[in-house]
Amino acid sequence: MSNETVSRPGTRRPDGATRGKASGRPADRVFLGLSTGSAALIMVILAAVALFLIIRAAPAIAANWSSDPSLSQGTTAGHEDFWAYVLPLIWGTLWSSAIALVIGAPVAIGIALFISHYAPRRLAGILGYLVDLLAAVPSVVFGLWGIFVIRPFLLPAEQWLVQHLGWIPLFEGPPSGTGSTMLAGAIVLAVMILPIVTSISREIFLRTPRLHEEAALALGATKWEMIRYAVFPYARSGVVSAILLGLGRALGETMALALIVSPSLIFSLAIATDTRNSQTIAANLALNFPESNDPQRQALIGTGLMLFVISLAVNFLARGIIARTGRTSTRRLRRAARITAGGGNA
Predict the structure, then answer these.
(1) Which pTM value belongs to this model?
(2) Structural domain boundaries enclosing 29
(3) How many whole angstroms separate alpha carbon 40 and alpha carbon 290?
(4) 28 plus 138 within the same structural domain
(5) Are 147 and 287 members of one domain?
(6) Domain count across the chain
(7) Considering the domain boundaries, does residue 66 fall inside one?
(8) Alpha-carbon gap, residue 346 to 336, rounded angstroms
(9) 163 in the same domain as 41
(10) Do residues 34 and 162 both lie within one domain?
(11) d(Cα 331, Cα 236) in Å, to the nearest integer?
(12) Per residue in 159-208, pLDDT tens?
């Protein structure tokens, strides 16, 4: 048996330090206190926001709108209760964000991959700067761009889709006359999430261990096979994080969709007509909150509570996916090494 001292948590090591405990230096104690306080402050703020939303939205959630004549006009007109009012908004929020992710996420990952592994260094620097610059553009500017550029550009294509493919639920409904469709709004959303997804994915791709890439190339893999079997397995959890952060941006976007998409409180899959659009929670709040009375304001705060819950659910889902991906990353890398060693066949 070796005479070496074995260090265990909470035991004193030969140098006098104690594992798992901060040293007695004042700077360490101050840093520990600031870190602990910051973490606690985040939890307090989150709990305070949730408590405020619950208290202000509770009357609206519990009320029966059909029994209150004062609500016959306004944001809840035509709906029997709060849930009949909020469920179409939840659907519109999720639907628009899903379309934006389907359009934007592959483009963002492709841009990140081109910048990190294909573009010359000078061009990569310029492209990276331009992508990051998109994050500084205000959402209202994206909304105006959508009104004056995207809507007229998409209008002929949307009319053709409705006329020839109207039997598909995605394109059903009367042809659009203004271009204020869910498709136009989703394309603007896709552009808005590009900086987040691209920047994080690019950094993750660049952090792939150089030895993994060189080993794959040395085993005879082409550049694409090296990316597929060495870069993607390593970056999988980071890319998932980037996509879900982009989803969070899309879920909370307000002004762009409020300016572009024609509002209506219905369930609809249609993306190419301006009369059957599903409004989003954030856009509905921006359009109706300033002119609402007290009962309507409670209903709108209730929709904000639903958006808060959706955002928390997305973050918990992200944590679960990342944890699961992290546990399997080592197995994927080993499998990739065997595949490349065998000639690149899956």
Answers:
(1) 0.78
(2) 24-57
(3) 34
(4) no
(5) yes
(6) 2
(7) no
(8) 9
(9) no
(10) no
(11) 13
(12) 898 888 888 888 887 887 888 888 888 999 999 999 999 999 998 998 88
Domain shared by 176 and 109, yes or no: yes
Nearby residues of 61 by Cβ (< 8 Å), 6 or more positions away: 82, 302
Look up tokens 């080592």; give the residue: 330
Residue pair 248/311 in contact by the 8 Å Cβ criterion:
yes
Please state, in angstroms and rounded to a whole number, the distance separating the CA atoms of residues 284 and 258: 7
Asked if the structure places residue 333 within a domain, the reply is: yes
Contact (CB, 8 A) for 259 and 184: no
Residue 161 and residue 51 in one domain:
no
Length of the chain counted residue by residue: 346
Within 13 Å, how many C-alpha atoms sit on residue 95's CB side?
Answer: 24
Task: Give dist(CA 103, CA 180) in Å, integer.
Answer: 18
For 127, the enclosing helix (H) or strand (E) is helix 121-134
Name the packing angle between helices 151-165 and 182-206 (round to 10°).
Answer: 110
Provide the token pair at 47.
């709990």
Write out pLDDT tens, residues 222-238. Answer: 888 899 888 888 888 88
pLDDT recorded at residue 205: 92
Round to whole Å and give the CA distance between 88 and 84.
7
* Distances from the Cα of 195 to the Cα of 13, 137, 173, 232, 270, angstroms: 47, 10, 34, 20, 27
170 touches 272 (CB < 8 A): yes
Q: Which residues pair with 12 in a beta bridge?
A: 18
Domain identity same for 50 and 110: no
Cα distance between residue 181 and residue 284, in whole Å: 15
Please give the single-letter amino acid code of residue 19: R
Q: How far apart are the first and last CA of the chain?
A: 46
Three-class DSSP category at 137: coil
